Amino acid sequence: MKKISKKGMNEFIQSLMADYIILAPASTDGIFSFKPVSNFEQIDLSYQNSKKPPKEVFFPQSETMFNYKNGKVESTEKVKQKKILLGIRPCDARANILLDKVFAGPDHKDVYYTNKRENTIIIGLGCSKSLSTCFCTSFGGGPFSKEGLDILLMDIGDKYLAQVITDKGREVLNHKFREATREEVRLAEKIKSEAEKRISSRVEIEGIKEKLDRMFEDLFWNKLSQECIGCGTCSYLCPTCHCFDIADEAVNSEGKRVRNWDSCMFPLFTLHTSGHNPRPTGKERMRQRVMHKFNYFVENYKEPACVGCGRCIINCPVNMDIRKVLKEILEV
Amino acid sequence: MKNPYLPIPVKVGKTFIESEDRMLKTLDLLFLNKKDEENFKFIPGQFCEISIWGKGEAPFGIASSPTERGFLRFTVNRAGVITTALHYLEDGDEVGIRGPLGNHYPVDILKGKNVVIISGGFAFTTLRALIKYLLAFREDFKDITIIYGARTPGMLLYKEELKEWERREDLKVYITVDEGNEAWQGLVGFVPRIVEKMAPSPKDAYAIICGPPIMIKFTLPKLINLGFPSEKIYTSLEMKMKCGIGMCGRCNIGKFYVCKDGPVFSLAQLESLPQEY
Amino acid sequence: MQDVQRKIREEAKNLLAAGRVDLIIGFEEASLPLRASPVFIHNEDDLDMLVWNSFCENNLATYLTKVVGRKVAVVAKGCDSRSIVALIVEGQIKREEIIVIGIPCRGMVDRRKIEKEVEGEILEAGEKNGEVLVKGDDFEGVFKKEDYLYPSCRTCKYRNPVISDILIGEKIKENTEVDEYAEVKEYEKKSIDERREYFGREMGKCIRCYACRQACPMCYCEECFVDSSHPKWIEKGLDSSDLTIWHIMRAYHQAGRCVDCGSCERACPMEINLRFLTKKINKEVKDYFNFETGLDIKVAPALATFSPDDRQDFIDSGEEPAGESQGKTKL
To answer: Measured between alpha carbons, how far is A140 from A135 in angstroms, rounded to an integer?
Structure first.
């Protein structure tokens, strides 16, 4: 376990800036996102979490895949500069591991995603003060979970403790990081266990997948989808959602191929050119969202596609609450 | 690492309007680079994402067999932006393809077995690929029966090849139309009816069926009645696709991605899936 | 509030029991403080879920175009009732197929404004005697409700439902003195560069989630122009020109149709100031056609009607004014 003073953090960041772009939480009109920073003072670590999930560092909402002109294609897959993602929360870091299963699977590698992943060092910040909408512990995560992180920082008041998790993380440390004392380590344990106890929102996920196996035709979905207005807020703010659209933006035969986030909640998502739509109403689309996250994804990758970050709950315009949905599924 | 999204350059070769309503057109695509052609190894049933520069990409089943060297054949139904653009292409125009994508017809399982191929309308394209392949290795397969129907004689695909196949002694070919004309000498009747009439034997046989949903809906019961078990009936699904490699989520049904785990599925597999296609 | 809530449940019970409706669209308690959650109620056992408070911020009229053909009762504030009139006037719902449970409204609480006033997460909230009480881990707060209303509520001139089958609660004196276009006028004073900067900054936050469009009762088009691929009007990404067209066109499509309920703004996860465009358009419609949306079920929408007396001074004929002083256009 290492430690670094808050002043030391600033020097640490300064030293990295020569070789890395540093992305850290910054606020615009009260909404947080990960932006390039040039010194520690620009970082507002009083933040709870970013509005949009940091998956957009590896999987941007709108990304040009390649440009073309006269039949000649120029890909944008090459990463121009390494990045440091500083201050990511453990839930979002875990979500990246889930996304890896989709984008970096055995059959094909999405080079746009994987190149960015490989060239980014992820320094997380543990959550000493979680929100009432956080339920990461129900999904195998936690406020100080190490999954998906290269270094985990823990704020203990006047300094940060830093747990180095991977070689990638170790390489980037500098002399400003000292060994933490035994007392400081004990304090870290205390903070961690208190933070875990603080997560008050618990969701039972045992048996959800099996229950859903039998629920495809259930009237439950008719009822559930009624209040949903069919926007894409939950999908776009979810750190594990990965659906996207590919389209060409061009004039005559010169242009680019772009991929943009998309959502299974939109009617256009499965609409065939013939007019046939396998998921014609909100009911089928709501069912797809829940089934994909808590059944199909589990079938393929053994884990649900949810990390309990709570963004969908906080931002849904009509207060649809996935915790309530999961509870009701078990009660059906 | 290979970027699975980058199209390979190809150019348009022969084109041919198949149907009397001019909505079905066949195009041959030729690789611009010999290396690409050598590396492109596929099996009937697979598809490609064809890119039209300036317009976009769409998935099309490969209508030619890997045994037909020098070109990839596609038959395109004109319906939207990309298919219309494909229809306007001429000899020499350059486009891109990504592939081969998806799984394929179970040609290995079919070895030494009787094969019954049933199709309707425009869905016949990838079955042409399969038939050409089976014929190239004719001794590996036992009886081959083809039942193919279209709305009218003018709507049949690959008319010249159909005539050739009808003349062969080692194929049982039944071409039918919903509505004949004066010149039409062949069978008249919907495909499910003809299947019932010709009653192909399920003994040691596999059925491959591709067609519009309504044809499949009425033909499957006939096959089941004849004694074909659902594990031995295969079909190819059509779905809206974008990435073609199982990541964008669009063609996700149940735990499968039609572009990656399909588009060829056995009926047994389909029955285990949510009926959302 | 409690009284209104009790009466809503009673009326809903009577409606269901008498078979006059088979669906009640109202609000239930939310899973988060300072919120209420739209709820669809089909049977009498669930009626106790219905609530009424100052957090019922959604415009429930947006659901009416999705339940066409069913006998529905819907809870409606002043603004919501005007949306209902607008939908009837546009032929999207039939008057006789809905029962409007109208509720005179003193405004809804702007939860974001209150959240900015406290340090830490609000865990509980309630209201009493015109005050909103909030509680967090280590803080408590009391806020005067009328100081923390949503912007559209602060300048609301139609707090009493303009249409209702059942009216619950006492009618409220309308606020005729307030200048509802004060903010628009401030914006109009900005220079072109300042406007461009403000517009770009706000629209740049957009993530194309379409929560604004889905929350709005008047956005009921089966195919929205942004989803059209043939012709393709705009792309689907975050390019500033696409975001610009998306928001400007959405505002224009609201001309003579928007009731300024504020649902778009409240739904937007990025907290974009969406009303500054639509409010400006509302002002233009008022100035040019003396029309406000959703007040009279017998009056067609302003942009769907033509009258020979319509103002024409905004039309530039392109002719050179003969002998006129500069700056005046004459037809």
So the answer is: 10
Contact B142, B112 (CB under 8 A): yes
3-state secondary structure of B37: helix
| Beta carbons of B29 and B10 less than 8 angstroms apart | yes
- What single-letter amino acid sits at C314? F
Strand-pairing partners, residue B49, are B59, B98
* Size of the A and C interface in Cβ pairs below 8 Å: 101
* Contact in structure between A202 and A316 (CB atoms under 8 Å): no
ipTM tops the 0.90 cut = yes
8 Å CB contact of A246 and B240: no
Give the SS3 label for residue A331. Answer: helix
Check B54 against A255: CB less than 8 A apart.
yes
Find where tokens 């995560």 sit. Answer: A141
With beta carbons under 8 A apart, name residues in chain A contacting B9: 71
Q: Report the sign of the C-alpha dihedral through residues B131, B135, B138, B144, in that order.
A: positive
Could you give the CA distance from residue A127 to residue C301 in angstroms, rounded to a whole number? 53
Length of chain A: 332
Residue A77 burial (10 A CB sphere; 0-12, 13-18, 19+): middle
Residues of chain A with pLDDT under 50: none
- Amino acid residing at B79: A
Supply the Cα-derived Rg of chain A in whole angstroms.
21
Q: Are strands A2-5 and A178-179 parallel, antiparallel or unpaired?
A: antiparallel
Instruction: Quote the CA–CA distance of A49 and A53 in Å, as a whole number.
Output: 8
C positions 223-252 inside 8 Å of B (CB): 229-230
CB contact under 8 A, A319 and C267: no
Q: Answer yes or no: are the C-beta atoms of C250 and C243 closer than 8 Å.
A: no
Retrieve residue C216's tokens: 């709005």
- Decide: helix, strand or coil at residue B219: helix
CA–CA dist B163, A220 (Å, integer): 54
Contacts of C227 in chain B (CB under 8 A): none
Q: Tokens 């970013």 identify what position?
A: A50
| Count of residues making up chain B | 277
Enumerate residues 6+ apart whose C-beta is below 8 A from C200: C240
Domains assigned to chain B: 8-101 (2.40.30.10), 107-236 (3.40.50.80)
Q: Tell me the pLDDT tens digit for each residue of A142-160.
A: 999 999 999 999 998 888 9
Q: Residue B49, Cβ neighbours under 10 Å: how many?
A: 25
What percent helix, strand, coil does chain B show, rounded to 5?
A: 30, 30, 40
Among residues B176, B108, B170, which one has the least CA distance to residue B145?
B170
Indicate the pTM of the whole model.
Answer: 0.93
Q: Say how far apart CA B236 and CA B246 lie, in whole Å.
A: 17
Neighbours of B133 (CB within 10 A): 23
* Structure token digits, residue C38: 């739209």
pLDDT in tens, A209-241: 999 999 999 999 999 999 999 999 999 999 999
Which residue type, as a one-letter code, is found at position A80? K
Reported as a pLDDT band with limits 50, 70 and 90, residue C328 is: very low
Question: Cβ contacts (< 8 Å) between A266 and chain C: which residues?
Answer: 210, 227
> What are the C-alpha distances in Å from B246 to residues A112, B101, B215, B271, C225?
15, 10, 28, 21, 29
Strands ordered across the beta sheet of B187-188 = B187-188, B172-177, B144-150, B114-120, B205-210, B233-236, B264-266
Written as one letter, the residue type at B14 is K
Closest CA to C105 of C160, C149, C60: C160
- Tell me the backbone φ, ψ of residue B275, rounded to 5 degrees: -80, 70
| CB C235 within 8 Å of CB C197 | no
Residues of C in contact with A317 (CB under 8 A): 58, 211, 214-215, 263, 266-267
Q: B243 — contact with chain A (CB < 8 Å)?
A: yes
- Write down the pLDDT at residue B39: 94
